[in-house]
């Protein structure tokens, strides 16, 4: 599909929903672009778990998802975070539709490591027919990162990975992975561009680590899947660090 822009919003989604954010989305639509949103919700999930005295256990950046944790995750993502985002968009005059795995099994996945991580999943397939129909009618799909196995078991999936797979399946021109920093930093400088090869070198040299590592791994996955460019930034109005497949000439 031509002229698609996919945006992955972070857990504290309301921080991103500024006037300038909506102005940028509006301008993209006026220019003929179609916009898809994937949202996280980690901050709110952890907060709810603590309120309910359910221990928060993380492993390699992923939330160990017991049956109880999965229910809380579903409740927060579908019952709290997604309605908040959709209502903000609607108040600004956009036509939006909130989606989760139960909507035409839009995200099909498998368990990543059931014994260790519980109901954490990885994306196997995105059902694009519904998305393409919504985009053709100028709606903005707003997708929660929950999947279903072929047997109908619910999965908690990393939102960056869902966004990359959606962007890949729709052959998006741009994917924005919003984070809390304005890009990728090297030697105290924010980088304007990175090639996929340079990312591999920075990983080997351990210059990239922590929370940025899975974001860049997701970016590489998206580029290899056909997405033209990935932006790591804290605001869609700013390009941030642009990831491309070509070599970046110094």
Automatic annotation (TrEMBL):
It catalyses: N-acetyl-L-glutamate + ATP = N-acetyl-L-glutamyl 5-phosphate + ADP. Substrate binds at residues 41-42, 63, 156. Gene3D superfamilies: Acetylglutamate kinase-like. Its main location: cytoplasm. GO terms for molecular function: acetylglutamate kinase activity; ATP binding. It is found in: Cytoplasm. Residues 3-234 form the Aspartate/glutamate/uridylate kinase domain. One of its GO terms (biological process) is L-arginine biosynthetic process via ornithine. The record marks 8, 215 as: Transition state stabilizer. One of its GO terms (cellular component) is cytoplasm. Pathway: Amino-acid biosynthesis; L-arginine biosynthesis; N(2)-acetyl-L-ornithine from L-glutamate: step 2/4. Its EC number is 2.7.2.8. The keyword Transferase applies. It comes from the Bacteria. InterPro entries: AceGlu_kinase-like_sf (IPR036393), AcgluKinase_fam (IPR004662), ArgB (IPR037528), Asp/Glu/Uridylate_kinase (IPR001048). Belongs to the acetylglutamate kinase family. ArgB subfamily. PANTHER family: N-ACETYLGLUTAMATE SYNTHASE (PTHR23342), N-ACETYLGLUTAMATE SYNTHASE, MITOCHONDRIAL (PTHR23342:SF0). Catalyzes the ATP-dependent phosphorylation of N-acetyl-L-glutamate. NCBIfam families: argB (TIGR00761). This is Acetylglutamate kinase.
């Amino acid at each position: 599909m031509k002229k698609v822009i996919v945006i992955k919003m972070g857990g504290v989604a309301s921080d991103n929903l500024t006037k300038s954010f909506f102005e940028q989305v509006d301008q993209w639509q006026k220019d003929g672009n179609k916009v898809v949103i994937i949202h996280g919700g980690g901050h709110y999930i952890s907060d709810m778990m603590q309120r309910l005295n359910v221990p928060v256990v993380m492993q390699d950046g992923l939330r160990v998802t017991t049956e109880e944790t999965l229910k809380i995750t579903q409740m927060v993502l579908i019952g709290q975070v997604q309605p908040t985002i959709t209502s903000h968009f609607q108040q600004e005059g956009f036509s939006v539709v909130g989606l989760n795995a139960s909507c035409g099994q839009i995200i099909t996945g498998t368990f990543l490591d059931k014994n260790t991580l519980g109901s954490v999943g990885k994306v196997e397939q995105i059902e694009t027919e519904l998305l393409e129909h919504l985009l053709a009618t100028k709606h903005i799909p707003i997708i929660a990162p929950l999947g279903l196995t072929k047997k109908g078991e619910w999965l908690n999936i990393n939102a960056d990975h869902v966004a990359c797979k959606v962007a890949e399946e729709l052959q998006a021109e741009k994917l924005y992975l919003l984070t809390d920093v304005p890009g990728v930093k090297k030697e105290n400088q924010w980088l304007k561009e990175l090639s996929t090869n340079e990312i591999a070198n920075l990983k080997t040299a351990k210059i990239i680590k922590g929370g940025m590592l899975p974001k860049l791994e997701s970016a590489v996955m998206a580029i290899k899947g056909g997405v033209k460019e990935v932006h790591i930034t804290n605001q869609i109005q700013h390009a941030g660090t642009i990831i491309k497949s070509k070599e970046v000439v110094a």
